[in-house]
Design a protein that fits this description.
11 strands; mainly beta; seven-stranded mixed β-sheet
Length: 124
């Protein structure tokens, strides 16, 4: 049974940092892309960052470039998202996702498995 478990969310002041982790279990995901999406209250789930299966291709939504960094470890079946210089508008539930296809890393439909989410709240 595949399971993705996120951790690391919390309450932080604007300008602060957090590190989100997502551990996947149930099979090897070494050939899978891994990504982070987020969903704020009343808004649709949106792409944040993704990394392809070998870690050589990374993509970010423009609003987090230069502030967030994604990394993965295929041996640990883990993906991280470092969030720096956090802004109030970064407040959302952050979801980890893994997918076999790596054609469009920004598309929700590319991902086969999802975690339950971790809350990130940035106070202004």
């Amino acid at each position: 049974q595949v399971q993705l478990v996120e951790s690391g969310g919390g309450l932080v002041q604007a300008g602060g940092s957090l590190r989100l982790s997502c551990v996947a279990s149930g099979r090897s995901f070494s050939s899978y892309a891994m990504a982070w999406f987020r969903q704020a209250p009343g808004k649709e789930r949106e792409f944040v960052a993704a990394v392809n299966w070998n870690g050589l291709r990374k993509e970010y939504v423009d609003s987090v470039k230069e502030r967030f960094t994604i990394a993965k470890d295929n041996f640990k079946n883990t993906v991280w998202l470092n969030l720096n210089s956090l802004k109030f508008e970064d407040t959302a539930v952050y979801y980890c996702a893994v997918g076999r296809s790596t054609v469009d890393l920004r598309s929700l439909s590319e991902y086969d498995y999802w975690g339950q989410g971790t809350q990130v709240t940035v106070s202004s």
